[in-house]
Every structure is written in structure tokens, then in C-alpha cells.
Fold this sequence. Notes:
globular
Amino acid sequence: FTDRAGKVQRRFVVKLQGRWQGDVGTLEEDFIYSDGKTERRVWTITSLGGGRYKGTAADVIGEAAGEARGNALRWSYTLRLPVDNTTYDVQFDDWMYLMDDKVMLNKAAMSKFGFHLGDVTLSFYKP
Length: 127
């Protein structure tokens, strides 16, 4: 995570495991942060047709909304984010770009009350 000034505040590695059954997919995300903390998020994603998706997870407020066009997917949601001894509901606007059949890049802008808080930049590799 980089703050609004571009300073790296937190690093992590995430391992993903996904599967589809019909129009419903499950995506398991296991995060390992540089400070040793771990986190797990399990998404249930539903294809609505026409490149549109919706998703839910335990720490997501309401539903995520997604739209795919070409090699890009926009994924928007509100996440209940734990920080120290409290939680904040922050908005994420993710843009994911499939570079080839093994590599995807993800840039997520994080905001609260419309104010940009920072960005998460990820690269995914499928072995």
C-alpha cells in the first residue's frame, strides 16, 4: 500500500485459489504482510452476463460490482478495513489488466468520503 504521497506503508504477498461452478465462482485470498500478520478473504462472485459481475465477502459492505471489457476488469466495493484497534469503511476502485494468460496487473485506488487515501499495486502470476 502506498499513501497519497507515494510512500510505501505496507507490503504483502497474496495467494489466490479460484474455482467456478456454473455462473458462481469462489475466490480465496490469503494475505501475508511484511510484519507477519495474515488475513483471509473469501469472495463469492456471480456472473450476471454481458461482462458484468457482483461479489460478496465477509468484510465487504454490501456487494462489489464488476465490469469486464476486453482485457480489463473494473471491480468496485466498500471494504471494512481493520487498522490498529478500530475499523474503517473504505472504498476500493480496482482496475485489473490481463497481460497474457499468466500475468495480471491490478491497481486499486482507496478512498474515504471521496478523498484519495492511497493505492494498492499488485502483479499476479499463474504458474
